[in-house]
Design goal:
It is a single chain. By secondary structure, this protein is mainly β. It has 3 domains: about 5-110, no CATH class; about 115-230, Acid Proteases (Cathepsin D, subunit A, domain 1), CATH 2.40.70.10; about 235-430, Acid Proteases (Cathepsin D, subunit A, domain 1, Beta Barrel), CATH 2.40.70.10. The protein is built from 4 helices and 32 strands. The strands form 5 sheets. Strands 12-13-18-14-17-16 form a 6-stranded mixed barrel. Strand 5 (about 70-75) and strand 6 (about 80-85) form a beta hairpin. The longest helix has 19 residues, at about 5-20. The chain is globular.
């Protein structure tokens, strides 16, 4: 084929894509591989986007922001950048292998909250919280429903509802689906991209929500993921049982111990050190306020650091989640866990045994039996976490070595002798029909 013919074919593909959109010609990005990287402001999402020409319009929901930023799609042969503003959409075409037009939209409709009522003075927003059944809870509503009980889960990056929320009037309008990955496999679930979430006088419009068909937790109507506070600074004060949302890092953070808070995939994590005599094994562990128990160590970390057989075994359990498979684990007594320089003695931790499934993040998960001992500031702007021991710091850990099985929970959970984790939603990508939006600009 001549160069002229190849160019003609490319133009035909481009104009065909434009005709399908019913608009003028869209910008075109070339790709020979289906895997695409996305740089979203300061975030680099490696291989996060997978091209599929069969999707009528694939929508990438940019991380929420209050300011203009740059979003760049990076293929194996090309890249394209957009300077995006909140509340807009940006359409383009990714041409796969020179022939398949993948119609793509960047959406910045998902934004931060707004206050329902004006306040006489400026300052942070305060949300009452509680601990129920070992998890962090708060109250709110979806789509003007009755009051709903939510688990606030720093180990989840999307909001989710259970059937009990629907019975209380949540009324989700489904317009897509997501792959919900966790222990035991992956399940495709329905999603709504345009829900209204209200918590303590704060309102989020155009909030994506996933629907979990099974009532996974009898004490809650759903989950609110940390992502609703992207771009904010979130303080969790367990002594006063409040969550305080700041626009910038508060001055009193100087009295806390600071540690980096990188992201394991899409979830906030910090370094923790497992201390056994002179041996110190450090790794990155996701912060999970939706997880009961103290800590989950995944099978890869356990094998790399030879954890099995090195500590006293308290019991054995089985992790179950969204799939049919389960992961056996040992409840082991760790002599010392160090977090942000603070040493916690005699911590019962759940350590996965080898299996064909491994949904846990890089090192594992830090759960509520550890996290509730520290008043915490999570800086989602500077990617740092701040810890300060509170009145629960010196309380003894309770190892659950007997009792009834726990509920089967989506994500990472345990059912058998012990209950050690809550909900970890690993959102892959949503495929949905485009909702009504402002014109692309």
């Amino acid at each position: 084929m001549t160069a002229y013919a190849r160019a003609s074919c490319l133009l035909v593909a481009v104009f065909a894509a434009a005709a399908a959109f019913g608009q003028q010609a869209q910008p075109v990005l070339r790709a020979n591989s289906t895997a695409v990287d996305i740089r979203d402001g300061g975030w680099l999402l490696k291989g996060d986007w997978v091209l599929d020409p069969a999707v009528a319009l694939d929508v990438y929901d940019a991380r929420r922001t209050t300011e203009e930023k740059r979003v760049t799609f990076i293929t194996d042969v090309d890249s394209m950048s957009f300077d995006v503003r909140p509340g807009h959409t940006y359409d383009f075409v990714i041409l796969l292998n020179g022939k398949d037009a993948c119609r793509t939209r960047i959406s910045t409709m998902t934004q931060s909250y707004r206050r329902l009522e004006a306040r006489p003075t400026a300052g942070p927003d305060t949300i009452p919280i509680s601990i129920r059944h070992g998890k962090m809870h708060l109250q709110g509503n979806i789509n003007d429903s009755q009051v709903l009980d939510f688990i606030f889960d720093t180990g989840a990056n999307i909001c989710a509802l259970y059937p009990s929320a629907m019975r209380k009037g949540a009324r989700l309008q489904f317009d897509g689906a997501t792959k919900n990955s966790g222990t035991g496999g992956t399940t495709t679930r329905q999603t709504s991209s345009d829900a209204r979430l209200e918590i303590a006088g704060l309102r989020w419009d155009h909030e994506p929500v996933m629907y979990i068909e099974k009532q996974a937790d009898r004490a809650a109507d759903g989950i609110v993921g940390y992502s609703v506070f992207e771009g904010k600074v979130v303080e969790i004060d367990w002594d006063r049982m409040v969550m305080i949302v700041h626009e910038t890092l508060p001055a009193h953070a100087a009295g806390f111990a600071r540690t980096p808070m990188p992201f394991a995939g899409s979830l906030p994590a910090v370094e923790a050190v497992l201390v056994k005599g002179v041996k110190r094994d450090s790794g990155l562990f996701v912060l999970d306020t939706g997880g009961t128990g103290a800590m989950i160590v995944n099978q890869a970390f356990a094998a790399a650091h030879d954890l099995h057989g090195s500590m006293k075994k308290l019991s054995t359990g089985v992790s179950r989640g969204v799939g049919a498979a389960g992961i056996r684990n040992h409840l082991l007594l760790l002599p010392q866990l160090t977090l942000a320089g603070f040493a916690l003695p005699n911590v019962p931790i759940n350590v996965e045994l080898p299996s064909s499934s491994n949904a846990a993040p890089p090192g594992g998960v830090l759960c509520m039996e550890v996290l509730r001992r520290f008043n915490t500031i999570l800086d989602f702007q500077g990617h740092e976490a701040y810890f300060k021991p509170n009145t629960s710091y010196n309380a003894s850990f309770k190892a659950r070595v007997s009792g009834p099985p726990s509920s089967v929970i989506v994500g990472i959970a345990v059912a058998a002798i012990v209950s050690f984790a809550g909900l970890v939603l690993l959102r892959e990508r949503r495929r949905r029909s485009p909702r009504a939006v402002r014109p692309a600009s």
